[in-house]
Recover the amino acids of this structure.
């Protein structure tokens, strides 16, 4: 799995540069639908972007991104050109990632909540990441640059921050394949610490779907592929979107 990814990334060389999307302002605020938006059924119905509010897309390059992050981002953007990969926009509120049809009534109302990995406004201090989806391979990759506020052991990322980015990547992958899901189980083996400010590639894929159960696996590696930082398996359960989370919890 990983070897394929490295091969793909290497095969593209480093010459690609970012073309500004005319519908995306410099600060990453999306106006209407971006051509870079993914095209799975779930995201197609995401005229979510088009309506009244302007949403900031946090998965666009900013000045905190290292050269390594920029290079990798450019390579994946290049791979988006033939439609094999899709860049996934990222917003500060999880509800904005769902199409209107999947939102519960209570979720349609705006709340002062923030998606956990997007809860810091200062660029570069927390989770800097961008995701790309390969629908035919049922695979989601995430380029992740952990900032100084994610410290665990001195100079290295906290294990919880690694778990968060794995859960988000694997969860995003599961959502594309199965719709509305919740993490039921996430098992992580931490192999090598992730230096703060470095760039790693979180590579996840759906291995199997059995009824409501979605099984996934994931590896976190350095961008040269030489260092395995973590590997994980996960079980996500498709939830009945007609039932509120509260109802599901109270029936347990
Ligand atoms: C855009 C942003 C993306 C970010 C993604 C981030 C995702 C998240 O972090 S979600 C938050 C963390 N997760 C949670 O809080 C989930 C808490 N748990 C729950 O809500 C429920 O237990 C839930 C929804 C997972 C399953 O509940 P429910 O729908 O009642 O399913 P339930 O009937 O118990 O189980 C269904 C099947 O799954 C199995 N199953 C459920 N949980 C587990 C588990 N932990 N391990 C193994 N099997 C399980 C059951 O055994 C059952 O199997 P079978 O059909 O063969 O009998």
């Amino acid at each position: 799995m990983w070897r394929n990814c490295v091969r793909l990334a290497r095969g593209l060389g480093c010459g690609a540069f970012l073309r500004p999307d005319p519908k995306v302002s410099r600060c990453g605020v999306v106006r209407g639908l971006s051509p870079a938006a993914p095209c799975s059924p779930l995201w197609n119905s995401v005229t979510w972007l088009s309506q009244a509010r302007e949403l900031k897309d946090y998965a666009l390059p900013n000045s905190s991104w290292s050269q390594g992050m920029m290079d990798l981002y450019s390579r994946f953007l290049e791979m988006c050109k033939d439609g094999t990969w899709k860049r996934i926009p990222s917003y500060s509120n999880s509800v904005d990632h769902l199409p209107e049809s999947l939102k519960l009534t209570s979720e349609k109302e705006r709340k002062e909540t923030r998606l956990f990995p997007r809860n810091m406004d200062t660029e570069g201090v927390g989770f800097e990441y961008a995701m790309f989806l390969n629908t035919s391979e049922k695979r989601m990759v995430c380029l992740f640059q952990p900032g100084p506020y994610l410290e665990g052991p001195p100079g290295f990322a906290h294990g919880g921050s690694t778990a968060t980015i794995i859960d988000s990547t694997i969860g995003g992958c599961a959502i594309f394949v199965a719709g509305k899901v919740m993490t039921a189980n996430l098992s992580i083996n931490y192999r090598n610490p992730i230096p703060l400010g470095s760039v790693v590639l979180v590579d996840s894929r759906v291995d199997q779907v059995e009824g409501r159960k979605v099984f996934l696996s994931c590896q976190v590696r350095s961008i040269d592929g030489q260092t395995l930082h973590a590997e994980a398996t996960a079980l996500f359960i498709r939830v009945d979107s007609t039932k509120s989370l509260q109802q599901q919890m109270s029936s347990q």
